[in-house]
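Q&A FORM
Asked by: J.P.
Topic: structure of Phage exported protein

PROVIDED:
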Amino acid sequence: MIEKVAKLINVKSIVTIILTGIFAFLSVRGDVTNEQFLMIFTTIIAFYFGTQSEKKKNEGE
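REPLIED BY: S.T.
REPLY: Here is the structure written out as tokens.
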């Protein structure tokens, strides 16, 4: 359990969580439209999971 928490606490995870929070806040305030939020959030999440997948793939080789 501690190892899983330690893996979550890295720079990419922290940046992803912070950006998600910021864009959610801006969307609620009305500064970002729903379409803009969806595009930005999808890009961030796709990049994060894409890099995680590539990292796991490289570790398996």
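FOLLOW-UP: The two ends are 25 Å apart (CA to CA).
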